[in-house]
Design brief:
Length: 417
């Protein structure tokens, strides 16, 4: 039996932990450089604000409705996520964090009759201990647990916990659940299923085994089995990102090559951190910079695709390949307004085929990278960084950034008695 714990409107909830006066008020969190909306409170959703809305397009609505806006404070969000996961770890011998605000718990140690009250206790404990509201879905498969958590979040009558235990509950839960919201159904599969008349999770579960075998590869078949109540996805098989992108629009245009290299190095560092967390390595990536689309003379765009001799997640090695490629493409005298790194071919680190003629000491590289990661995890992000990396805050507009309440001594809350 599994419980999927999902933090409600996580980024917004993190901001509200230290600003309880914002409870019940519309709040949004903006992307890097305060460009787009990436998180919304329920009150902001009710106003019609959507994920991905460019802030400049909805500024009048934000002003007229007194919407509170925050720049992304990932140091705060990461710290509060760690605190939530620490609490969850006390309640199971098998915890799998799936994202910054989601985790699966194995709760086989509980009798079925105790699952819901026990998880309601977890909801209260996290709310009391961290201040974050969470929703929990309970089911015999991870996909059904995800669906149950959606219902728990949507309907207050569940008291934060929805369970799918009986066949009757399973059929009722998936009957009207939109196929596009089913965990593991990607954009490509969604379009294919809609063409086949499959519009709900119930429609998919009702298909026969032969149809599923002809239409899907292993992940799709596993999703079908999970919707039918079979535990088919192990923790080791949880879907991982196969492409990771880190890109930004700069607050002011950059023409200096070294400054651009510093920004791109930060992007690469962020990509590497993400793939190491999911135990992946990169076989190919893209580096790019571009001018504003509205620049005089039209947009100018530089990019290069780098295929690595041996897939890796080592930042030092990837920076070397990236900087070499970028320098060969760079054109001076142009005002670049945006840039980024796209990792396009990610594979599990255990599946790497070694190169007989590889000259790098990869064991030494791994030890150095682990040491850097351990120091940065203990003392703060980028406390140790490569010389090509810029100060990550130098060229970004974060005018609505909240204090680093839980990760910076200067920002700690002072209580006057």
């Amino acid at each position: 039996m599994y419980a999927l714990v999902d933090c409600n409107n996580f980024f917004v909830s993190c901001e509200r932990v230290f600003r309880p006066d914002l409870e019940g008020k519309p709040v949004v969190v903006m992307s890097g450089n305060d460009g787009c909306i990436i998180a919304r409170s329920n009150e902001a959703k009710a106003l019609g604000l959507k994920m991905g809305d460019p802030v400049f397009k909805v500024r009048d609505l934000i002003k007229s409705e007194n919407v509170y806006c925050f720049s992304s404070n990932f140091s705060l969000y990461g710290d509060l996520s760690s605190r939530v996961m620490t609490i969850l770890g006390r309640h199971t011998n098998l915890l799998q964090q799936y994202s910054i605000d989601e985790a699966f718990l194995n709760i086989d140690h509980l009798p079925l009759t105790e699952c819901k009250p026990y998880c309601e206790q977890i909801v209260r404990e996290i709310r009391r201990g961290v201040g974050i509201p969470v929703s929990i879905g309970i089911a015999s498969s991870k996909t059904l647990a995800k669906i149950a958590s959606k219902y728990a979040k949507k309907y207050s009558g569940y008291n934060g916990v929805c369970q799918i235990l009986t066949e009757e509950q399973r059929i009722k839960a998936i009957a009207a659940f939109p196929i596009e919201d089913v965990w593991g159904i990607g954009r490509r599969n969604y379009k294919k299923l809609i063409c086949e008349g499959v519009r709900t999770a119930g429609d998919l579960a009702a298909k026969n085994e032969q149809w599923i075998a002809n239409a899907f590869s292993k992940p799709g078949i596993q999703t079908w089995l999970e919707l039918r109540g079979t535990d088919a996805i192990t923790f080791d098989e949880l879907p991982e990102k196969t492409t990771i992108t880190v890109s930004r629009t700069f607050s002011s245009a950059i023409s200096d090559r070294k400054q651009l290299e510093g920004e791109l190095s930060n992007f690469m560092s962020s990509c590497c951190s993400k793939i190491r967390r999911q135990h992946s390595v990169c076989a190919q990536f893209v580096v790019f910079v571009g001018t504003s689309r509205f620049a005089d003379g039209g947009a100018n765009y530089l990019s290069d695709v780098i295929t690595l001799p041996v897939p890796t997640n080592n930042l030092q090695e990837l920076l070397g390949h990236m900087l070499s490629a970028f320098r060969s493409q760079f054109i001076g005298g142009i005002q670049y307004k945006r840039g980024g790194v796209i990792m396009t071919q990610l594979v599990n680190e255990s599946d790497v085929q070694a190169d007989l003629f590889d000259t790098r000491d990869r064991d030494k590289d791994a030890r150095l990278q682990n040491t850097i990661d351990n120091i940065n995890n203990r003392f703060g992000r980028n406390q140790i960084r490569f010389a090509t990396q810029n100060n990550s805050e130098d060229n970004y507009k974060n005018v609505c950034l909240s204090p680093h309440y839980s990760t910076k001594l200067d920002d700690i809350v002072i209580v006057k008695a």
